[in-house]
Amino acid sequence: MSELGVTINLQRDTPELAHIYEQAGIVQFHHGKFLIGPLALKAGEHVLDIGTGTGRLAEFVAGLVGPQGRVIGIDPLESRTEIARLRQSKTLTFETGRAEDLSRFSDSQFDAVYLNSVFHWIEEKERALREIHRVLKPGGRLGLNVQDPSKLHESRVFLRTAISQAGLGDRHRETHPVFGVTQEQLKALFAAGGFVDYRSDMRSLVDVHSDADSQFKWSESNAFGNFLDGFSRSEREQVRIAFARLVEAKRTPEGIRLERYLRFAFARKPDGSLKEPKLPA
């Protein structure tokens, strides 16, 4: 299901990229709050944040479940987990780990699991969903948002145009690899994973950047070193200049406004009863 057909290398992340992500991560945080609401988290619940990054959203969730609740955040990138651990508390902890292997957790351990702008980085989606299903309690809720290859972010459209204008149009496959999924693919994945009461909707979200360079830095940190991988330094500079020229058309008094499109999806693990209650709308 790879949109661009390339492999994502997690080893390219650096402490510098992690710190840039922490500074600019308020963007992902706001998107994540849209994800958390429909999960209807309650005081005392146990929650797993997969792909927690530097932990800002997990910290917010810990406040929702309160002193009797528990939130665990995992991320495969150690440099980001180190920053997240600065947010740790009695009810909030962070570990290095991946969605495809949740063996450290017991069956039916969590009331809710969420993945905020993470699912499109996971290649083995079926395996990840099986693991999530296992660690959820009967009736437990799953929420995620994911890129849909049928609706590219504006920044990606501008980037591909910039690459073409720089005379490097045959290199677009190396711009920013993701394993996005369409609505039909996602629905099938959830069903195969044993989830019920699936629902999803595409949302348009707006990012505001002061200039093209800040957008570039955000993309580099968000892709943990895979952004424009395979391009030489001079080629990257050509692309950056063309990109900056293009996105100026989106400048407003607040800054450069670029739309980001994410599909938000929710489902739950069956609780085994004859009449299954549905998630709140």
Q: Which features does this protein show?
A:
Rossmann fold, 9 helices, 281 residues, 35% helix, disordered N terminus, globular, alpha/beta
Helix-strand layout with pairing:
Layout: H1 15-24, H2 26-36, E1 46-50, H3 56-65, E2 70-75, H4 78-84, E3 92-96, E4 110-115, H5 125-135, E5 136-146, H6 154-165, H7 183-192, E6 196-209, H8 212-222, H9 233-247, E7 251-252, E8 255-268
Question: Short summary of the structure?
Answer:
The protein has 281 residues and is an alpha/beta fold.
Question: Main beta sheet: strand number and arrangement?
Answer: 8 strands, mixed
Low-confidence stretches: 1-5
Number of helices: 9
Percentage of residues in DSSP E strands? 15-25%
Tally of DSSP β-strands: 8
The CATH superfamily turns out to be Vaccinia Virus protein VP39
Q: State the share of residues found in helices, binned by percent.
A: 25-40%
**What Rg is obtained from the alpha carbons, in whole angstroms?**
19 Å
* Known CATH architecture: 3-Layer(aba) Sandwich
